[in-house]
Design goal:
This is CHAD domain-containing protein. The protein is an all-alpha fold. It has helices at about 5-25, 30-50, 55-85, 85-90, 105-125, 125-145, 155-175, 185-205, 210-250, 255-285, 290-300. It is flat, with a radius of gyration of 22 Å. Helix 3 packs antiparallel against helix 5 and helix 3 (about 55-85) crosses helix 6 (about 125-145).
């Protein structure tokens, strides 16, 4: 398959996933509809960044900003969904406090989630969204169906080029991480690992399948630790923000609520510190010869 057809085919598939999940999001049937929609948006943006040069530049310039907008407009609702899905687990983490102490916090999250969902629904019902998805799918279909020449770069060649390039980028950033590295550097590594993961998913059909599974497994171990580090920092900061908003509301929260939220914030800081400690060992393994051999084995 020509490289541009492969890229367009993958992007068309992501667009289809976005489209089929819209009604489930609008009807608020299950939080997984929004999750699947957002994953497809992230995959779209990552593939445009890593292989968008295979497509006509005016096409990418026209549609890439729309997918950034779609990612931004879906973020608040998803973040609140995650909080509410994990709320009982958060309450169970309390030692000094009681689960009922968090009730005012839960009510705030529900209220904020409803506001965010209404904003999201307006966006998904807008002409901007409709034009984005329908126009994008039509443009990609034209690329997929156009006539080919034998001299074009193949999907297999593109996969080898781009995976090697992305691996070098991830390895370079991973080797720069030390226990003293700022949080921003760790977050940047997490983003690059996610991009590599999405790229590997796209090129899977032209890879050695056993080696592909092994590389994904190695990468997932690093991603899990990077995710714990990210969650620790984000959650500890957001809990402070929510506590301030509760205090600023018309009804002052009980002292027990603020104390319980402070206890949770401290737990997340501990989680971030543990992840920072585990990261050094995980990166040493990931940067070792075994992972390098697996990556070379999976490539065409």
């Amino acid at each position: 398959m020509p490289a541009d057809v492969a890229v367009a085919t993958a992007l068309h598939g992501f667009a289809r996933v976005i489209a089929v999940n819209v009604n489930g999001v609008l009807d608020d049937i299950d939080t997984e509809f929004l999750h699947d929609l957002r994953v497809a948006v992230r995959r779209t943006r990552s593939l445009l960044k890593l292989a968008g040069d295979m497509l006509p530049p005016p096409l990418v310039a026209r549609y890439a900003p729309g997918f950034k907008w779609l990612g931004d407009v879906t973020t608040p609702t998803r973040d609140l969904d995650v909080y509410l899905l994990e709320f009982d687990a958060l309450a169970a983490m309390l030692v000094a406090g009681e689960p009922d102490d968090l009730a005012p916090f839960g009510e705030l999250l529900q209220s904020e989630r409803e506001k965010a969902r209404r904003t999201l629904a307006r966006a998904l019902r807008s002409q901007r969204f409709t034009r984005l998805i329908e126009g994008w799918q039509a443009a990609l279909t034209e690329i997929i169906e156009r006539e080919r020449s034998e001299e074009e770069l193949s999907a297999e060649s593109l996969a080898g080029q781009r995976v090697r390039r992305m691996v070098k980028k991830v390895v370079r950033r991973a080797r720069s991480i030390t226990p003293e590295s700022p949080a921003e550097a760790v977050h940047d590594l997490r983003k690059r690992c996610k991009e590599l993961r999405y790229l590997l998913e796209v090129v899977k059909p032209v890879c050695d399948q056993a080696a592909h599974r092994a590389v994904i497994k190695d990468l997932k171990k690093v991603q899990d630790i990077l995710g714990a580090f990210q969650d620790g920092e984000v959650q500890s900061h957001s809990l402070r923000d929510y506590a301030e908003r509760l205090q600023a509301g018309s009804t002052r929260p009980p002292a027990a609520t603020l104390l319980a939220m402070g206890e949770l914030s401290a737990r997340f800081v501990e989680m971030q510190l543990r992840a920072r400690h585990d990261l050094t060992e995980a990166l040493d393994r990931f940067l070792g010869p075994a992972t390098h051999e697996r990556i070379e084995a999976l490539l065409p």
